[in-house]
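Rotation project, supervised by the postdoc (A.L.). Task for the rotation student: set up a whole-complex structure prediction and record inputs and outputs verbatim in this book. Inputs entered:
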Amino acid sequence: MGTTLEISDDVLWGKLVKSWATGKNYLSKDAPPFPIPRTLDELLSIAKSIGLTITFPDGMVGLAVIQYSPQTAVIKLPPKAMVEETEARLRQPGAVYPMPKFYDDFYGMRLPELSQDGLFALHAARIGDYSIRNCG
Amino acid sequence: MHGISLSTIPEVEDGRSRLTVDPAYRGMRNLLALSDSSLFGAGKDPLQLRALMRKLSARISREPVRPDEDNPNIPSGYTYLLQFIAHDLVNTSISLAATRGRRFGFENARQQPLTLDTIYGGGPDVSPQAYEYTSRCSRSRGLIPRTRLRVGRAQDRTGSTSHMPFADIGRAAPLDVADDMLAASPCPVRAEALIADPRNEDQALIAQITGLFHRMHNFVLDRFDASRPPVTAPEAYRNFICARIVMSLIYRRIIVLDVLNRLLNPSVFRHYFIDKRPTIGEGDGSDIPLEFSHGAFRCGHAMVRDRYRVNSDVELEAARALQICSRRSPGFVPLPEQWIVNWDRFFAIDPAVAPNYSRRLRPNFSSTVRSEFFFPPLDPRVDHRGDAAGLPNRDLVSAVYARIWSVPKLIDALRAKSVEISNFLPAYSEVAPGLDGWLAATANPGGISEQFGPGDIAAIVEDPPLPFFILYEASLARYDDGKRLGPLGSTIVAETIVAAMKASDIGAGGLMFDPCQSFKDQSGPLQQLGAREAAIAGIPDVESFEDLISFMKSERLLEN
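Outputs recorded:
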């Protein structure tokens, strides 16, 4: 456990999620599909078996895996405490938006310096985005 | 680190279906003359062997991290100093893994190993981009050569470089060029690194090691220029050559007394560097053994951490350092201020500051070097599954195509050549027990990562790939539990470096210099080259990289 969620390899993690979503094995093409984890321990065990390290924030003990249909609008509400914690961090002088670093990697440039208004607008847009938009 | 070429030239498929010895690559050699039967993978189908390497990579990825993964013997600065030294020994950007061993365009262009070619390049006239354009050069219409090496400013969080320290290498934005990415850019992009060897900006940490050498060169040159101001081109070259000789001597002393003293098995270090026993390798010493370049020295990849405390207690992800590279992602350069290294955190300089330590030398790698983003699979067609992602797999695949010695046979051959070596290099049969157990550990038939099939483990035990075996050997408790290389890895490294230093003596005008002698003792020959005694007196006799940094700090060379 740590204070923030950390995933050692975003691409590998994404392949794992795609495997669960589709029932295919994106990690080893001819290998059979593998079960969706039901507990954090199961998830960590699967991750370890492929050399992936996931660190969850302190105090996180439960796991919910949701797969929705294309016909259902699902709105995933983030925990109130997490939203407020991020807002508090964004109010600090010199705050930087905690954008996952793989965006920098793929776009080949850094997120520009933002004003506090800009940081809060980006925060809102990001929360809105990942709460409702389907992957793909 | 990337080990993938941007300049690989496709070659006609040669149709070879079994591994056999190939004529030597120019500038490279085998440590000992190699026959077909002694080759790693002799007679095997390289594609099948490549698939086996993928399974071995999967096993390596399953290796659990140890709670005491830090190597207290080797601070992290040495990880990148070793990369720098590798660049000074081998200058080729073509990956044999990427080309399936086709060697068109593959040669080692490094003519004078371990003389800092990697920062000086071909000198001011051949590699002018690495050198400062000075008023002296301008006033003489270019007749007086550029002799100071470039440094560049870092950037702050807004992207501004004004008032920032010269902590980076020099970088340039090409203007009015036809490059489609640059022509379309609304603002100048620093896509060019102003250094002699572009691999030295592979990431932010080696770039700053390079910058240290540039600064130290400028300090030494300034002393020679101050004591005998150059007015003519020959006088400027004279001072430049004196500075390069001094820098090469400092560098070699650090390699022997510090780097190798930490990295090598103590018995091997004693044999080659205290008892000064001769090398037994065959061929021209300035040619680099493939067993070094594609075997033993790949150990540096296992030393890379996932996170570094760069200049404070805040940890930064090592993957971010990989992005700070003009060639790969100019949008991230110059060096961001949060990546300006406090060297106390990379070398054991200040007892009050705990440095980052490298990871132990064992078959286990950080997520950074296994990253699919930075090191995607080279060939998606191998065995209908493709290669594995990550540097560990690339190193193994390179070993397949490099035509290097089989480990058991190399050990036999080295022991047969020298009784003294056989005293510290045990027979393979003494080291192999336990390897099958290591390979079988973590196996899970229902697991989602690729598992070994029938016969795979036996095949690896019979003929393990050298880059893997070097790490396995280093990890054994009978040696130093991953704190330094084992005897085979150490012997290959020592043989290579001693032979390279001997083949490329440091000297000029018939005068030879010894890195292990003090500058005071070599003042006479240096004065014969034109250096003034007063200038030589101010040059430190450092014995470690830590000494060098401490000296540079005392001279305030790291402050602006």
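Student's summary: The longest helix of chain B spans residues 233-263.
Supervisor addendum: Residues 1-15 of chain B have pLDDT under 50 and may be disordered.
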